[in-house]
């Protein structure tokens, strides 16, 4: 079964350092997402990406964050200067949405990767 | 904005039936998801309701009433492996949007 893969599974970094989290979405998916979950809290939307550009972003996704699809398969989240409060599990997700022959849009399932745990010291 | 409420914790007995409720107040609505999340793992998709009514999928069913801003997830024939957090999430309006707003999750403990 196809899956979303993420690396690294766990990264420890010093405050102020840059971090890049990598994701390989499912190959025929068109929409990509980053969500995060601070330990013990709810899953929060960060950003969505379609057609090589950001389509939506939340208030959390400030100038310290950026996303990129450098080579047509990887989808990366960069945090330029990490803060303590950036410590969280970061989930990549993807979906393939299309309109079927009946004209009805398929809602599809949002597939999540296993997550990258970021610890900022 | 979206506000989603669900109970923090529930306990049920193996083999029993449990209903996890979710209420939402939203400025836009394009469907409601239920996800299962085991500790330290990614959320996995359980169901998606966009129209009122009941969707059944094996031991899991999900119900939606848009007029009441209410959904529930029904789990039948509970198994120990069903112990997990169950996340209610609302899809923001917009045909191409899968910006989901999640509730805090309901931690279900299944006991023998």
Q: What is the molecular shape of chain B?
A: globular
Oligomeric composition of the shown chains: heterodimer
The span between the termini of chain A is: 37 Å
Count every beta strand of chain A, where a strand is a DSSP E run of 2 or more residues: 11
Q: Which structural category do the helix and sheet elements of chain A fall into?
A: mainly beta
Poorly predicted sequence stretches spanning 5 or more consecutive residues of chain B = none
Query: Helical stretch count of chain A?
Result: 0
Q: What does this protein look like?
A:
The complex is a heterodimer of chains A (121) and B (112). Chain A is mainly beta. Chain A is built from no helices and 11 strands. Chain A has strands at residues 5-7, 10-13, 19-24, 31-37, 43-50, 53-57, 65-68, 75-79, 88-95, 111-112, 116-120. In chain A, a hairpin with a 6-residue loop joins strand 7 and strand 8. Chain B has strands at residues 2-5, 9-13, 18-26, 32-37, 44-49, 53-57, 60-65, 70-75, 84-91, 100-102, 106-111. Chain B is mainly β. In chain B, the strands form 2 sheets. In chain B, strands 2, 4, 5, 9, 10 and 11 form a 6-stranded mixed beta sheet that branches. In chain B, strands 1-3-8-7-6 form a 5-stranded antiparallel beta sheet, with no helix packed on it. Chain B is 0% helix and 57% strand. The chains are: A mainly beta (121), B mainly beta (112). The A-B interface holds A 31, 33, 35, 41-45, 48, 50, 55-56, 58, 91, 93, 95, 97, 105, 107, 109-115 and B 31, 33, 41-45, 48, 50, 87, 89, 92, 95-105.
